[in-house]
Amino acid sequence: MSQARLMDGTALARRIVEETGERAAVLTERTGTAPCLATVLVGEDPASVTYVRMKQNRCRTAGITSRHVALPAATTTAELVGTIEALSADPGVHGILLQHPVGEHIDERAAFEAIAPGKDVDGVTFASFATMSFGLPGFVSCTPGGIMRLLAAYGVDPAGKRAVVVGRSAILGKPVGMLLLARDATVTYCHSRTRDLSAAVREADIVVAAVGRPRLIRGQDIKPGAVVIDAGYNAGNVGDVDFGSAVERASLITPVPGGVGPMTIATLLEQTVEAAARQLGVTEG
Ligand code: NAP
Question: What is the assigned CATH class of domain 32-117?
Answer without folding.
Answer: alpha beta
